[in-house]
Amino acid sequence: MSTRKHLIYNPVMECMSRDERAALQGERLVRTVRHEYENVPMYRERMKAKGVTPDDIRTIEDIVKLPFMEKTDLRDQWPYGLFAVPKREIVRVQGSSGTTGHPIISGYTRDDVDAWSEMMARTLTGAGATAEDIVQVAYGLGLFTGGFGAYQGADKIGAMVVPMSSGNTQRQIMMMRELGVTVICCTPSYATFLGETIRDMGLDPKKDLKLRAGCFGAEPWTEAMRVRIEELLGIDACDIYGLTEICGPGASFECLEKQGMHINEDYLYAEIIDPVTGEQLPYGQSGELVFTTITKQGMPMMRYRTHDICTLDPTPCGCGRTTTRMTRITGRTDDMLIIRGVNVFPSQIESILVRVPEVAPFYQLIVDRVNSADTMEVQVEMTEGFAASAPESIETVRKYIYEQIRSVVGIGTTVKLVAPKTITRSEGKAKRVIDNRKL
Ligand code: AMP
Ligand code: ZN
């Protein structure tokens, strides 16, 4: 446990006893399920098909009686089929970043936006931010929830917001430097890129910048990447999690203990299920994360299958919060790659690469099928310093990475060390996998 002083935005909600919280969640679930049943035909049909009525839902434990929802349900009901209030009560829509398939949207009432702002205010406070801070929002401000979420939370805590949106790295750094920005919000891959660019510009973050914390999420990252970002930017890097279907960022967030993300459980109920059987799993077991919104009015979500894999920990945290924490997302049940029959998570490969000091955390996995056999090429950038080394040294590192991947992931791959700055940078979520197989 660290000895630092933790700030908590809403101690009543974040530190209540677990029994009190379960009672509150029960009441809220009962109301939400009735609202869904009465106002959304799809929920009514799904519940009827399972033989459940709102009267069967009395406590939070009854949640297991309810049906699951999937992303395809949002697509099938596009655009307004899942709205549970008349459109005039909706004040905002936000959408998925839409890197795969048709976009999805979620609708928010005024109260829903306020609840989301509160979740993000707690998130920023968890990273130590207060009204004294200057918060730069470098998540995209648009349909994507990242930018607006961070903006609303920073606004709610009374910080000075610099709403840069994503992109234009030189300008981001100029603003950071000249305005004395103290907190940055962006994807972890962009944070790394910012850190490297700052260094390439000959700046010393500790002397030239006032940054002290960052809230990074919207894509998977690793503990090793945290170490790198903290080192590059001289800050505390906190993980934050969310998804469009539920509210956007702020569903859960790390405090400065950095021991898992606190779930905003007075708004959301989290479960871990076995992705194959759908059965609820006990705390501590890894499985698919499922979220139920228990206050949302505009577009509530019942047992939404996120396909993100993690573990829940209900034990109290050193910060004083009593909310359940979720571990980092260790993979997804669906975008898991299957290479010659082996399940491969890009995060496994990333955690190998980030431990090799000669390479930078910019990589791409190129998957293909040659003569009906799957192939995977791992391209990773060398660091500036290492790129100038003798070919034999480069070959030694390449072989080392190859061996590591073979022993950890269990497959042979082609490993290519490429020149610095050759892998396309993303201003939002990084595109790590290029799958050229025609399935
Ligand atoms: P979107 O709705 O487009 O914002 O995408 C939500 C998805 O992004 C989630 O279901 C996760 O797969 C991923 N995601 C968001 N935050 C994190 C995080 N902190 N760590 C890992 N994956 C994340
Ligand atoms: Zn904590």
Small molecules in complex: adenosine monophosphate, zinc ion
Strand content: 15-25%
Shape: globular
Radius of gyration: 22 Å
> Biggest sheet, open or closed, and with what strands and sense?
9 strands, mixed
| Class inferred from helices and paired strands | alpha/beta
Helix content range: 25-40%
User: Termini distance?
Assistant: 49 Å
Residue runs with pLDDT of under 50 for 5 or more positions: none
Q: Please tally the β strands and state the result.
A: 21
Mean pLDDT across residues: 93
Number of helices: 13
Strand adjacency order, main sheet: 4-3-5-6-7-8-9-14-13
Protein model, in words:
Helix content is 32%, strand content 25%. It has helices spanning 11-14, 18-39, 41-50, 71-76, 110-126, 145-156, 169-179, 188-200, 205-208, 223-233, 346-353, 384-387, 391-408; strands at 90-95, 105-109, 134-137, 160-163, 183-186, 213-217, 236-243, 248-254, 261-263, 268-273, 287-293, 304-310, 312-313, 325-326, 331-332, 337-339, 342-344, 359-370, 373-382, 414-418, 433-435. Strands 4-3-5-6-7-8-9-14-13 form a nine-stranded mixed β-sheet, with helices on both faces. A four-stranded antiparallel β-sheet has the order 10-11-12-15. A four-stranded mixed β-sheet has the order 20-19-18-21. Strand 8 (248-254) and strand 9 form a beta hairpin.
For this entry, give a set of tags:
13 helices; 439 residues; 9-stranded mixed beta sheet; single chain; alpha/beta; binds adenosine monophosphate
